[in-house]
Structure to design on (274 residues):
């Protein structure tokens, strides 16, 4: 809806931006002005992205963050960011830089300072880490790998359907950068968790997530303890990493909308950039 607060949806690895379409429609109905742009190099459709994996290869966290920062700069006012997985990390990063009015980070990838690395997370990322050359390549998941990493909390039939509809190749570079974050002083996975003047942040976690287990999200929340800004945490105990795209997506989206409504964000033209 024209005139509403802009909302920028940011997808993560292995999912196409069009997987946000149901969320876009719901947020439009709620009076927001949502968009769901893809990562740099990703084609407009799932089929095109699968046909040209080299276009996304070797894009790292900073590339993606700067890409969305440019999109934000073109908007009439600071937007709300809603990100999933690595998109959640990017949302946190941009919020910490005061580029957003608020952010919802859903099963967000680990940021610098997060120490837990559960075995399920290692298994989920093994298709990338098994070959060091994948740092500069795009990597695809098989349906079985997608089932473990995304669709473990839904039926195999639903997982296979989600894979067929939305799965695309993903760059390996962000995963290598995140894995080395705690050993790199200037890691691109660093987020300003101490910023007391940033907008409110909602962390959402799925209790059955293999890729970003709840231990990672809880550890992330602890890093925000020294900030006076709003940081809230919601758990969906029976949900996996596919919680933004599977048959239960609406519950997550509606919880996000309810939380945003409580933040009393400026919906008027006064919130526009000068």
């Amino acid at each position: 809806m024209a005139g509403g607060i802009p909302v920028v949806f940011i997808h993560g690895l292995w999912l196409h931006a069009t997987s946000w379409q149901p969320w876009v429609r719901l947020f439009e109905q709620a009076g927001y002005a949502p968009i769901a742009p893809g990562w740099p190099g990703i084609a407009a459709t799932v089929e095109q992205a699968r046909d040209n994996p080299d276009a996304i290869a070797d894009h790292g966290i900073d590339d993606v963050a700067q890409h969305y920062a440019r999109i934000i700069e073109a908007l009439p006012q600071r937007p709300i960011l809603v990100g999933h997985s690595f998109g959640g990390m990017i949302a946190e990063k941009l919020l910490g830089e005061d580029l957003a009015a608020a952010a919802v980070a859903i099963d967000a990838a680990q940021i610098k300072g997060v120490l837990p690395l559960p075995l399920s997370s290692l298994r989920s990322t093994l298709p990338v880490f098994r070959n060091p050359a994948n740092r500069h390549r795009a990597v695809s998941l098989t349906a079985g790998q997608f089932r473990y990493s995304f669709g473990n909390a839904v039926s195999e039939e639903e997982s296979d359907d989600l894979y067929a509809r939305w799965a695309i190749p993903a760059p390996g570079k962000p995963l290598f950068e995140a894995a080395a974050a705690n050993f790199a002083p200037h890691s691109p996975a660093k987020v300003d968790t101490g910023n007391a003047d940033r907008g409110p942040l909602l962390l959402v976690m799925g209790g059955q997530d293999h890729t970003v287990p709840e231990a990672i999200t809880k550890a992330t929340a602890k890093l925000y303890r020294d900030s006076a800004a709003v940081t809230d945490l919601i758990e969906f105990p029976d949900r996996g990493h596919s919680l933004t795209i599977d048959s239960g997506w609406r519950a997550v989206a509606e919880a996000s909308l309810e939380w945003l409504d409580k933040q009393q964000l400026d919906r008027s033209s006064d919130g526009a950039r000068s």
